[in-house]
């Protein structure tokens, strides 16, 4: 089915100047960018986004990293978008990511892993609503 998912290009990948390369991978995989913004997250915004991880030992470092520079946040649409996006990102830990994936090519560590993608359709809806108003998401018209 056609799905929508939330994607974030994290501060490490923005600093590496590979936004275009990553967008190109989305497009080549048949994922369409239907909303996008660049944003330097506040601590409160990053903590709220990752609230499900609040009790995890890496939470503090994760939030500090996510606010260390601007990110690019987008909604991707396409057939099986949630799974397809996760496939082209590769495993959370870049050391375990398959060759040719975004994380294998651009990420340095599990903490600085270049991209985020929603892990389920349910979380995709929650994460999209966290960053975008309905009026900021552009469905296909032609
Ligand atoms: P992300 O998909 O953005 O969701 C939470 C992030 O926490 C994850 O990517 C990793 O960058 C980071 N993280 C750090 N350590 C871990 C860990 N042990 N397990 C999962 N995520 C981790």
Automatic annotation (TrEMBL):
Gene designation per UniProt: ndk
Record note on quaternary structure: Homotetramer.
Keywords on record: ATP-binding, Cytoplasm, Kinase, Magnesium, Metal-binding, Nucleotide metabolism, Nucleotide-binding, Phosphoprotein, Transferase
PANTHER family tied to this protein: NUCLEOSIDE DIPHOSPHATE KINASE (PTHR11349)
Protein name: Nucleoside diphosphate kinase
Cofactor entry: Mg(2+)
Catalytic residues of the enzyme: 116
The keyword rRNA-binding is assigned to this record: no
Domain Nucleoside diphosphate kinase-like: 2-139
């Amino acid at each position: 089915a056609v799905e929508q998912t939330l994607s974030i290009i994290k501060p490490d990948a923005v600093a590496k100047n590979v936004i275009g390369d990553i967008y190109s991978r989305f497009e080549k995989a048949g994922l369409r960018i239907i909303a996008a913004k660049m944003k330097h997250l506040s601590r409160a915004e990053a903590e709220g986004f990752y609230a499900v991880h609040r009790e995890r030992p890496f939470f503090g470092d994760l939030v500090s990293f996510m606010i260390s520079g601007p990110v690019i946040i987008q909604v991707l649409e396409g057939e099986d978008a949630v799974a397809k996006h996760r496939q082209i990102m590769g495993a959370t830990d870049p050391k375990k990511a398959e060759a040719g994936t975004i994380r294998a090519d651009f990420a340095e560590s599990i903490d600085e892993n270049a991209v985020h993608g929603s892990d389920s359709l349910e979380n995709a809806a929650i994460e999209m609503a966290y960053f975008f108003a309905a009026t900021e998401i552009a469905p296909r018209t032609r």
